[in-house]
Specification:
The structure holds 2 protein chains of 2 kinds. Chain A is of the alpha/beta class. Chain A is 37% helix and 21% strand. By secondary structure, chain B is of the alpha+beta class. Chain B has a domain at 3-69 and 101-112: hypothetical protein PF0899 fold (2-Layer Sandwich), CATH 3.30.2320. In chain B, the strands form 2 sheets. Chain B has a 3-stranded mixed beta sheet, with helices on one face. The chains are: A alpha/beta, B alpha+beta. Chain A binds chain B through residues 1-16, 95-96, 98, 124, 126-127, 130, 155-156, 159, 185, 187-189, 191, and chain B through 1-2, 5-6, 9-10, 12-14, 17-18, 21, 23, 25, 27, 31, 36, 38, 74, 85, 87, 94-99, 104-113.
Chain lengths: 227, 113
Amino acid sequence: MTVKVLTIRADVLGANKEKAKRNKDRLDKHRVLAINVMSSPGAGKTSLIMQTINRLMPKTRIAVIEGDIASRIDADKIHQQQGVPVIQVNIPGGCHLDANMIEVALNSLTLEEIDLLLIENVGNLVCPAEFDLGEHKKVMLLSAPEGDDKPYKYPLMFTEADVLLLNKIDLLPYTDFNITAFIQSVTGLNASVKIFQVSCKNGEGLELWYSWIHAEVKRLKDTAVRR
Amino acid sequence: MHEAFFTKGFLSLVLDRAKEAQASKITKISIIVGGLSGIVPECVELQFKIFSKNTIADKAEVTFQHLPARLRCRECDIAYSCDNFDLDCPRCGHRKIEILSGRECYVDSIEVE
């Protein structure tokens, strides 16, 4: 039997990247800003999304894709707020959303009626950072009770984030969290990340987050208009 | 952590390429893994044994070539290699990095019959 060596040189995640690019083109066409929201379980992704809906709707038209291992708990909770369209994606045994799941979810949304798509990734500080979904921005949350050492232990997501929300700052007095050391380690990994210190519980600091979203939504609309 | 996704991805890729080449068997798969890719070869090997059953890659040997990540220190502006997420600059000790490479993970070549 003849043995042949075939040169492949193909990215293992190439299929996901191609699909992510198609998702992005589709979102761009409809001028929908997509934000991939990532964090550990319990850091406050759903609370951030609910606060954002309350503050920005109806002026900014929002839809949500909700990724979880199981249940519709978050999707139902979010949908109850102003009837926001929510697509639940359940991934039994999975650890992240991928571009294919987003493509399927987009098929169920009326993109012409959306300005901002918030994608809540599966609670996990590792895998979601590896998979492009076609989003415009990657946003991560870290909550104060998780500790200021996380950038050292889970560096990848910190290197990928466009925005980092340090959440639950209302709990800082009850923790040993060192904000100066945390910011230093985060900016060491990622020179361009924007950091907002917030509490999704009492709303502190969130106005800066809302302003950032406004600016990004506007930037996308303006870019689309100039085309 | 997502080695199952990764393994299914490269298995489907090599099966497609082997089919295009009208091969009847894949004997070897060479994979390049960057130092910041987060892929654990031992997990991939185990997953591969499961997913490759009843395919022409069933008995293939999977080899991994590790490529250390390359970083640039934003403090003293030198480039350096790093392994195991040991990101600190070897010259100044700071951890103020720009990632030059290390996230890559690709199938380099396969051997077929």
